[in-house]
Amino acid sequence: QVQLVESGGGLVQAGGSLRLSCAASRRTFRNYAMGWFRQVPGKEREFVATILWSAGNTYYADSVKGRFTISRDIADNTLYLQMNSLKPEDTAVYYCAAKISPAGLESSHEYNYWGQGTQVTVSS
Length: 124
What we know:
0% of the residues lie in helices and 48% in strands. By secondary structure, the protein is mainly β. The strands form two sheets. Strands 2, 4, 5, 6, 9, 10 and 11 form a seven-stranded mixed beta sheet that branches. Strands 1-3-8-7 form a four-stranded antiparallel beta sheet, with no helix packed on it. The N and C termini lie far apart (40 Å).
């Protein structure tokens, strides 16, 4: 069982930056990919970005491309999301997730493990 713990959320003004972290409880060598999703009340959980854990390939939602950067530290079993040029519409609870199979990189249903979420609020 993998436990994921997010940190780094908070309140920021539009145009500002935040960096989210996700620490995994054990070695993540079995993880095919790790990613970030976000959710606002009343809406489906939305794909933000994912990274292939070994290869390092990255994938982004169009809404964050050019503003967010996903990265990982394999030695520390930690996933990051650098968020720049934040907009009020980026306000959501952000979740870290891990998957052990290649299928459905952008589908929340294909991820096996989830963190508890961290709130990001962007004021206008």
